[in-house]
Prior knowledge:
Helix content is 45%, strand content 15%. The chain is α+β, with helices and mostly antiparallel strands. The strands form two sheets. Strands 4-5-9-6-7-8 form a six-stranded antiparallel beta sheet. A three-stranded antiparallel beta sheet has the order 2-1-3.
Amino acid sequence: MALARRVRRALTVLVALALVAVGLYITSLVLNRSPAPVVEGCTAPLGNATQSLATDQTANAALITAISVHRGLPPRAATIALATAMQESKLRNIGYGDTAGPDSRGLFQQRPSQGWGTEAQIMDPVYATNAFYDVLIKIEGYESLPITDAAQKVQKSGYPQGYAQHEDMGRAFASALTGQSQAALTCTLRAPDAAGDPVTVKSQLILAYGAMQATAAGKTLTLPASDAQGWSIAQWAVANAKQLAITKIDYAGHTWLRDGNKGWTASAAPTDIVTITVAEAP
Length: 282
């Protein structure tokens, strides 16, 4: 009887080991045949380095920068605003404050109690961004000030040196999103999970840049543009590709394709028209 029990135990162990081996083999086959998961995010170069943001942060950075372009402000203004918003809210439109500012809200953590507007107003990213720039441009010589000093004169923060740590990020994304750097900003994205709408893209462009000529037809939106403004719009579209289901952007001899995540490549795209293509229904 004892011998029989030992034999049964040995057989049980062998069967268990065989099942584990089969499971590992099947798992290996599945993993080797499946593509690597896509880690979404956006990058912009600065010198020999690269600055990175999450896709939602990049969309907010694009809005902040587009408003500076619409207002005719220098790229330095966008750099200051981006560094400020990164320090205050991590470039996210948050609906809460902290112990230092319990009523702080929004991208710039502005406070109704300090005259920035109502809570509803400062939770509107367009209103909040314009409110920031309204104060910034009243600061004499803000363009030549260190970024942290200019930001502090607007924000009056209890941590005035905090803005300096985000200077490189601000410079990299402001340069790309104002169009000073060409074909610089790119995003790594998964395939769209819904169809895009060029009319929605147009409305978001107008919200950011103001009135503009743009024609929606089929799955594309085309608009005349030139020089830095064209690159600003083209890279705004990359920054918003995830939430607007944008799959392709063509401008000034370059094309950005979402499929394959290869970034910008040379193409025959015209130099005076930005073409934005959105996804078909999956």
